[in-house]
Amino acid sequence: MSDISKDHLIWMYKKMKMSRYFEEKMESAYMEGKQPVFNIGAGPVPGEMHLSNGQEPAAVGICVHLKKEDTVTAPHRPHHNAIAKNVDLKKMTAEIYGKKTGLGKGKGGHMHLFDPEVKFSCGGIVAAGMPHAVGSALAAKKLGQDWVAVAFIGEGAANAGAFHESLNLAALWKLPFIVVIEDNSWGISVPKKDSTCVPFNDVRAAAYGIKGYLVKDNDPFEMYRVSKEAVERARRGEGPSIIEIETYRFLGHFQGDPELYRDKEEVPTLRTKDPIDRVKKHLIDNDMATEADMGAIDADIFKEVDEAYQFAIDSPLPEPEEALEDMFV
Amino acid sequence: MSDISKDHLIWMYKKMKMSRYFEEKMESAYMEGKQPVFNIGAGPVPGEMHLSNGQEPAAVGICVHLKKEDTVTAPHRPHHNAIAKNVDLKKMTAEIYGKKTGLGKGKGGHMHLFDPEVKFSCGGIVAAGMPHAVGSALAAKKLGQDWVAVAFIGEGAANAGAFHESLNLAALWKLPFIVVIEDNSWGISVPKKDSTCVPFNDVRAAAYGIKGYLVKDNDPFEMYRVSKEAVERARRGEGPSIIEIETYRFLGHFQGDPELYRDKEEVPTLRTKDPIDRVKKHLIDNDMATEADMGAIDADIFKEVDEAYQFAIDSPLPEPEEALEDMFV
Amino acid sequence: MEATKAKVQKLTGSKAMSLAIEQAMLKDDKVFVMGEDVGKYGGIFGSTTGLMEKFGPDRVMDTPISETGFIGAAVGAAAEGFRPIVELMFVDFHGVVMDQIYNHIAKITYMSGGNVKMPIVLLTAVGGGYSDAAQHSQTLYGSFGHLPGLKVVAPTYPHDLKGMLASAIADDNPVVFMFHKTLQGLGWMDQIPSSLGPVPQEEYFVPLNKAKVVKEGTDITIVAAQMMTVQAMNAAAELEKSGVSAEVIDLRSIKPIDKETIFKSVEKTKKLLIVDEDYKSYGYTAEVAALVASEAFYHLEAPIGRLAIPDVPIPYSPVLEKFVIPDATNITRKVLQVMNA
Amino acid sequence: MEATKAKVQKLTGSKAMSLAIEQAMLKDDKVFVMGEDVGKYGGIFGSTTGLMEKFGPDRVMDTPISETGFIGAAVGAAAEGFRPIVELMFVDFHGVVMDQIYNHIAKITYMSGGNVKMPIVLLTAVGGGYSDAAQHSQTLYGSFGHLPGLKVVAPTYPHDLKGMLASAIADDNPVVFMFHKTLQGLGWMDQIPSSLGPVPQEEYFVPLNKAKVVKEGTDITIVAAQMMTVQAMNAAAELEKSGVSAEVIDLRSIKPIDKETIFKSVEKTKKLLIVDEDYKSYGYTAEVAALVASEAFYHLEAPIGRLAIPDVPIPYSPVLEKFVIPDATNITRKVLQVMNA
Ligand SMILES: Cc1ncc(C[n+]2csc(CCOP(=O)(O)OP(=O)(O)O)c2C)c(N)n1
Ligand SMILES: Cc1ncc(C[n+]2csc(CCOP(=O)(O)OP(=O)(O)O)c2C)c(N)n1
Ligand SMILES: [Mg+2]
Ligand SMILES: [Mg+2]
User: Fold this and answer.
1) How far is the CA of C147 from the CAs of A323, B35, C127, D24, in angstroms?
2) Residue B2's pLDDT band (boundaries 50, 70, 90)?
3) Tens of pLDDT along B123-170?
4) A116 touches chain C (CB under 8 A)
5) Cα separation of A65 and D201, whole Å?
6) Would the CA dihedral through B191, B195, B196, B197 be positive or negative?
7) Rg (CA), chain A
8) Domain residue extents for chain C
């Protein structure tokens, strides 16, 4: 028996699957024009590309508890977070393709996705989204709304000054703010043990007198549970939380990363514990869905993602002179 | 009976008294040329002036355990720290008078005192001295020396990003680094409860897996004891510590501060608990000194400080063109 | 909208600023203030005097010393429809929060294709001249002028401090509002006449992108800002006596620079001196000179004069500080030099 | 000391840099490297390739993402007699650590009256052109050039990357060493011929304050740095065909600017175009133009040309990015414009 409703589990599964499929397509889309000689600036999707395959539980486990009015900020590795926050998939894909129809009319790109409709944003500076989310939480409090603001960061970012300043502010002002630390063990090539003086960041909650949660082993169900508590506490005005989740980075830091720094065995081992399979298995084992149901769900997702890609591909590029627009409103 | 040796107590007393007398003189020196109409830029000692009257225990309680090779960094309120670290008093006073004979040839001023002879420095940017001390501690470790680096900061500074980054680095690298937080209850006009989400900063040690100490009520003896432990641990390679001491700010944030934000009763109450009197009483009560001994000590101190002022006053000002010198070595 | 002439009181720079904020806060409850010591203290340089008493601590918020935290928080609040006014106590501290200012506040509107507004005003105190030394005396006009996405203003007189602050708060884009400490008319600093001036009580708006000819003249154009405008005016009065007629332009806007006003003046005077309380290299003496040398070159009849901090940190000792910050005396000298070049 | 001509190998920019560091580390055990991913990874842009293997993790230290922490730590280490080389991975991130850089590293020697040395090299990668967008594509030459107390260099060719890095490490003052990503000759970026060049194996030093005439010409002077030098060289080759002889100066030093070399060239050519991959306002197009317009005015026979990023953040989409970053085509166009003005 599951303490998590079928609806929620299905939602989580869908978003995880969508994110995974979206990124698997991105893996190959990104390589277009970059073969046989890899050149980061070439092809229809140029620039750095940070994929989140394997990290989906962090995103869906908390976003399942969020509503449209809640804010999410994400870092340089934002696709799973964006998808879990219901960012417009077509416009997001178009943005990554640098198209006029994109979220930012092609000006932002993969690291800078802004969808104010669902209060999602991300950025390329480590930990910089934390103060932004604190500001959203402050706004919610000022407005007397029960809205929550969630900042996703990597475990590497938990050592940046912005982390400390944000949490002190949020705790001081008792804001509905949650930071989710996606501990994928690596900050580019630097393992957590070489960047972080404590094994787990949940203990840092003590520095702010707030709640700290630790989710082990990329567990989507446990992520669901602690997030539920943290979100409910935030909505009730009980202040901020830190959630750290041990998660997996299946791919390199960015596409093209030679990954000479990590053990060749690490990823294959992680892949045996694919969190999407775990949710699927859970649904089937608990008689919440059949293989056929899951197949139908997958088909819908593939279609939606394929359409988003098609939309992006078919969309026009901006005119060069548009580079001078949108400086000021 | 005292667990602290007479030598150490006398040393602490001397340094406290020297700091106090130095600053009392500074209070009036600073007002020269600023009367009847106060103008911060006027007189022989212009610019901001942050005095530390009342905060002496923080400085002497730890510096008594330091040697010349140990580093001290201090913030904008540096005199007591500097005196406890044996900074050249004449050159320091001359610097505050903007003289050519000053530590920085008149270029630094009261907030920027550098005495490399005793490894002392200070600066006007809140918390910025912490990374510097971390670097000194790193150097000590690299050199295989048992030197320690101590960063003094105010309680307000404990909410700056540099605090977090420095402590994580120091803990990660197990450096001989100690931060002393002088909690004088105020960051200019902002009381600690409005700036800091936890009542005491020693709990923040948990975020770094290091030792945290709290000294209540400006107690010079307790400051001595916890500092001894922290310094010894650091020297033995057992890593960094946080020491927070509840201390007193007898004066305004800076000279000229109208202090409209604090209760008129606060300072008189604090003054009844003058830490210098406590040390003196302890010495006498424990038969380590007589009133006459103390009088002689005081006389020596007055003389030394008076001489430093005289040196400063008698020293020449720099030539205007010297403003262009010392840019590069 | 220009102010009417009726009942024009005289106010200090700081009072002019707090009045502008007060009026904006009364009109729009989405406007709020955050910063260190902006509450009971009223801002170290008086920019928020009396506002805490009037609007309470929810709208005039004292913050911890966490500039990245609270100035970064302005981003989230702005995205939610608020109009935060945040104070960075001294511009010298910008280095602890520059990422939030220039990579986020300044760029989000652009990166979002115009979909996210950032109506944030960043107040910050600039300037030296009172021996506050290397970390508390800078203007850093150039550091902010260089980066795209920010409107950067530096008004001189109380009238403009109020009118431009009103415009800044009303603007849907981020504005860095630099006010000069010595022009705030504070009781504990050097009190100079220019820090007190006529300020209409009613709301009015001075544009954010226009320089102003504050003294007409025919022989040379002096471009300056804030205390350098004041010093240039003194120099111009002095020069008048020896028959030199200087036109003084108060820049007011650091970014964008109102080049038309400058070109028009140089067309008339043929000569140009630019005076800056910022570092010389890559400061506005460079930018203004370059604008003229590239876009109004044929107006010029003599080499352009530049007078600024000679690329050293601001030293503490008054004798040294006085040497590096331009004043009326060396402006006068430099004018004559340009005239005779 | 100039390099001898014998056995001159060809190296990429990144190899040239790591060789310079290696030689300095061999000679002086006080030299060490700190930064994100400088160890096993060898620096994201290859500046420390192979050093970790050679010197071990105590002298090539990977750090947490705590720029204020570890770059600030360089101050303390330098004061203890070490010579830290610290890497700020992208110059775009400077905002999280700017206070340490400009209020401390840059000013401590001055504030201490010359009593404290700061022999720190800050390595940082600059430049766009590969769609890394607004927060990862800047050069920010001007942001660093503006602030006193730093020597700021931006070498173009492998030879200078090695020789200037050797000089930077040997210097007892802080040096900001900007290397351009595209000029590193990395396997995963656009590979351009200029990123590979002759680099003597033995130690040699190229001065930190000298520009270099990289192509002689008589009709116009083009001043540029890094990728703009490369583009200007391409443009000059193109222009040669239509009979225009451009002289190209590789700035190399952003601060101080070697004005003598520029003045000498302008004296000959009478015309000047400055090309910058930084934002236009308050960038080196401004500073160089201002130097010439104030100190070499009478050499000039035409308005100075400025070509730079038009004061917008670097957009992501290649079509937009290409529009804002100057290339050989628009340099050529601009040269003709200046020639005919
Ligand atoms: C302030 C800042 N410093 C450095 C970087 C470069 N950088 C980008 S991602 C990254 C590693 C981040 O690690 P982590 O926070 O664990 O996130 P992950 O990449 O693992 O998702 C670094 C160092 C940056 N973007 N911003
Ligand atoms: C980064 C930075 N922000 C703000 C300031 C302005 N400032 C100087 S001292 C001070 C208060 C410091 O409080 P605390 O750390 O408690 O030290 P105290 O003055 O009480 O000794 C502030 C806000 C500064 N110098 N640097
Ligand atoms: Mg990570
Ligand atoms: Mg305090």
Assistant:
1) 16, 43, 20, 35
2) confident
3) 999 999 999 999 999 999 999 999 999 999 999 999 999 999 999 999
4) yes
5) 61
6) positive
7) 19
8) 5-200, 212-339
Q: What is the CATH number of domain B6-29+48-85+110-288+297-306?
A: 3.40.50.970
A45-69 residue pLDDT tens: 999 999 999 999 999 999 999 999 9
Candidates A53, A56, A76: which one to mutate for ligand 1, based on the most atoms within 8 Å of Cβ? A76
Q: Where are the domains of chain A?
A: 6-29+48-85+110-288+297-306
Task: In whole angstroms, give the CA distance from residue D285 to residue C247.
Answer: 27
Question: Which of D62, D317, D322 lies closest to A194 in CB terms?
Answer: D62
The whole-chain average pLDDT of chain C stands at 97
Tell me, yes or no, if D136 is annotated catalytic.
yes
**pLDDT, mean of residues C306-332:** 98
Q: How far apart are CA D38 and CA A90, in angstroms?
A: 38
The C-alpha atoms of residue A323 and residue D323 are separated, in whole angstroms, by 7
Contacts of C70 (CB under 8 A, 6+ apart): A131, A165, A169, C34, C35, C63, C64, C86
pLDDT in tens, A114-125: 999 999 999 999
Cα(B192) to ligand 3 centroid in Å equals 34
Partners of B212 in the β-ladder: B242
- Asked if D281 and C255 come within 8 Å (Cβ–Cβ), the reply is yes
Decide if C5-200 and C212-339 have a common fold.
yes
**CATH number belonging to domain D212-339:** 3.40.50.920
d(C-alpha B22, C-alpha C279), whole Å? 36
Average pLDDT of chain B to the nearest whole number: 97
* Residues with a CB atom less than 6 Å from ligand 1: A 76-77, 124-126, 153-157, 184, 186-188, 253; D 36, 65, 67, 89, 93, 96
Which residues fall within 8 angstroms of residue C53, CB to CB, at 6 or more apart? none
Give the pLDDT confidence of A88-136 residue by residue, as tens digits.
Answer: 999 999 999 999 999 999 999 999 999 999 999 999 999 999 999 999 9
Min mean pLDDT across A261-265, B172-176, C3-7 is at: C3-7
The pairing of beta strand C8-12 with beta strand C196-200: antiparallel
- Angstrom CA distances, A78 to A177, A253, B18, stand at 19, 13, 58
Confidence of residue C252 (pLDDT cuts 50, 70, 90): very high
CA atoms within 13 A on the CB side of D89: 25
Asked whether the bond before D313 is cis by omega within 30 degrees of 0, the reply is: no
Q: Which CATH class is domain D5-200?
A: alpha beta
Which residues are near ligand 2 (CB < 6 Å)?
Answer: B 76-77, 124-126, 153-157, 184, 186-188, 253; C 36, 65, 67, 89, 93, 96
